[in-house]
Write a structure and sequence with these properties.
Length: 182
């Protein structure tokens, strides 16, 4: 049996933590089924989740794997809104009224953007609200410049912690990581 920490590290592409390359330790991934825009009942009722803006379709983190995960998080949050909000409140110290307002209030932010702001804040040692405010002030260039201002750059220890944290959320949700993010 493979230790959970090694399996987890190899799934996230952290080969240094796993002690070998992901190709050497992990079996060849099976492609995930194409994402579905809600259940048949949701589609029939017209309540299936669809991206509300271009930022939902392309989060713009500068990391295609994380962009893909944030798009997948949008789908998860559309189906499991309460569990998603609980995740942000419990594990990211996000204020419940603010998160609820952003997701279901008049602003209707993408769940991926709210998640990424709180995850980025955690690894940068800032409050979630600070990153949400930074995104609200200027989201035109995507998340990459905001992350850089927080000291989270590609390949940095904070960026690795960010990826691990996203993976931990997937474990808590009992949701498999999409194949092309491994």
């Amino acid at each position: 049996m493979i230790p959970r920490s090694l399996l987890f590290a190899s799934l996230l592409g952290l080969s240094a933590l796993a002690g070998a390359t992901p190709q050497a330790t992990a079996p060849k991934p099976v492609p995930a089924p194409a994402p579905v825009a809600g259940t048949d009942v949701e589609r029939a009722a017209g309540t299936a989740a669809t991206p509300a803006s271009a930022s939902e379709a392309r989060p713009g983190t500068g990391d295609p794997a994380i962009d893909h995960l944030l798009t997948d998080i949008n789908a998860y949050a559309a189906r499991h809104r309460d569990a998603f909000i609980d995740e942000l409140v419990r594990y990211f110290d996000a204020p419940r009224p603010l998160v609820t307002d952003l997701l279901v209030g008049e602003r209707r932010w993408s769940a991926g953007d709210v998640y990424y702001a709180c995850a980025l804040a955690r690894v940068a040692g800032r409050p979630c609200r600070a990153l949400l405010d930074a995104w609200a002030a200027d989201s035109s260039q995507g998340w990459a410049p905001i992350a850089a201002r927080m000291g989270v750059t590609k390949g940095s220890p904070q960026a690795r912690r960010l990826r691990v944290g996203i993976g931990e959320s997937y474990v808590r949700w009992a949701r498999p990581l999409p194949v092309d993010t491994r």
